[in-house]
Amino acid sequence: MRRPLVAGNWKMNGSREAIDLLLDGLSGISTTAEVAVFPPYVYLPQVVSTLCGSGIDVGAQNVSEYQAGAYTGEVAADMLSDIGCRYVLVGHSERRSLFGEKDRQVAEKFVASQRSGLIPVLCVGETLEQRASGKTLAVIAAQLDAVLERAGLESVCNGVIAYEPVWAIGTGKTATAEQAQEIHREIRQQLGEPGMKTRILYGGSVKAANAAELFAQQDVDGALIGGASLDSDEFREICKKACVAN
Ligand code: PEP
Q1: Active site residue: 92, 101, 126, 234, which one?
Q2: 158 C-alpha vs ligand 1 centroid, how far in Å?
Q3: Is 17 a catalytic residue?
Q4: Residue 164 among the catalytic residues
Q5: Which residues of the chain have a pLDDT value below 70?
Q6: From residue 209, how far is each of 167, 172, 217, 234 by CA, in Å?
């Protein structure tokens, strides 16, 4: 039985005050799903300290592939672990498309995260153009393969995978529940038997209104949520649906 995970990626949003308000809105959240939030780096200590004992986990949105040293501006996995993070996003499509992260670098980040005791949430997904030209499965298989080759099957299966079609992120266009299930099933098949324990999240314009249908799919084990995670009422509602549907 895979416990659903509802993960809120706050991206580059917030201020100390706004985050206090958002966290206030999440207090006493009632769900049997696991919940995690991913604030910008500088607010991690504030969020870790406020959420201590709440049952809500904290993750970072990115991590360096290097362990320590002369890498100005980078943040090491050990540091994230040291301040109380449990999760870290690796290979988010915005990192891939805007900051040029390639599969190999994503694989190094995945390995570095696990080495420090973090749980990486590996993001994979196709662009609209790739979908239109029938390359969806090949693109996702290649993204996954790069990490499988570097980290090994068992390590990948101990992480979390987030299927996020690029065309659905922040656009208001969600994959249908059937489209999501089809890709999630393919990902699980690629992982084979060890992948039965792996949580595969869907991400891309998830809201309270479409969450239940997505969560009802056999291979959808929760969601990675951007925009809607900045609204505590909406996020609470999504968390509730993860619990009801699973
Ligand atoms: C995301 O940033 O991972 C995401 C899925 O964003 P949104 O929910 O806003 O589409």
Answers
A1: 92
A2: 23
A3: no
A4: yes
A5: 244-246
A6: 19, 12, 15, 9
